[in-house]
Amino acid sequence: MNKVLFSSNRMDWETPQDLFDKLDKEFHFDLDPCANDDNHKCQTYFTPDQDGLQQDWGECTVFCNPPYGREIGKWVEKCATHDGIAVMLIPARTDTRWFHKWIYNRNNAEIRFIPGRLKFGGALNAAPFPSMIVVFSNRTEFKFEPVNIHFPNTECLSGSMTITKDDPKYKRFEQAFESESHLIERISQKINLLNEMIKHEWGEDGNKDG
After folding, report:
1. Half-sphere exposure of residue 88, counting CA atoms within 13 Å on the CB side?
2. If we measure between CA atoms, which residue out of 74, 96, 69 comes closest to residue 179?
3. In which domain, by residue range, is 191 found?
4. Distance of alpha carbon 129 from alpha carbon 47, whole angstroms
5. Cβ atoms within 10 A of the Cβ of 144, count?
6. Span 27-51, pLDDT tens digits
7. What DSSP character marks residue 209?
8. Could you give the number of structural domains in the chain?
9. Which residues are paired to 111 by β-bridges?
10. pLDDT-derived band of residue 159, with 50, 70 and 90 as boundaries?
11. pTM, full prediction
């Protein structure tokens, strides 16, 4: 396996134009904060030298395909706390801290997993990782249920299936997205139970009677 493909060495994954067009038809973007003079998707955009993380986005409707390096969590936080609507195209890394802190089970976030692997602009082959669209909105008229997971079909992103807590499939997703903290909690409970059993068998001082 080529480890470079799964590393953060490459950060610039240009958005496929057809994917952007479908999203733009739905959201009508007016700011691209992660762009350059050659690949920007909106008339208003910020280049790396301008550093979109440090800019005021106002209440713009933002399309954000951030650098996929170690600072991706900062971009997710920026979008999650944006005053308007921010739509992100990012790797579907559900095991990361930024996913659990800013995306999963948040009522201002909608998740749309993209089937298969995207072929990013200028690439000869599909990406070595799955992708997802995350829609953030802090506008009061545009809120989501805490669990609102969409699977867009390959033809149109607006065609999707919502999985609610009443759906039998929900349990599988809940298990799949279970954070490390839940596992640690269960281990801690087992350790406490084992300690109680040892105390019962050996006594508080660790010396077994008899």
Report:
1. 28
2. 96
3. 179-210
4. 25
5. 17
6. 999 999 999 888 889 999 999 999 9
7. -
8. 2
9. 134, 149
10. very low
11. 0.65
Note the pLDDT of residue 113.
93
For residue 81, being part of any structural domain is answered with: yes
Reported confidence tier of residue 1, pLDDT bands at 50, 70, 90: very low
Return the beta strands (E) in the chain as ranges.
62-64, 85-91, 109-114, 131-137, 149-150, 162-163
Q: Give the residue carrying structure tokens 């999650």.
A: 80
Nearest to 180 by CA among 73, 96, 91, 107: 96
Does 190 lie in the same domain as 123? no
Pair (112, 61) in one structural domain: yes
In a domain, 2, yes or no: no
Look up residue 138 and give its amino acid.
N
**Max intra-chain CA distance, the chain:** 84
Q: Are residues 210 and 125 in the same domain?
A: no
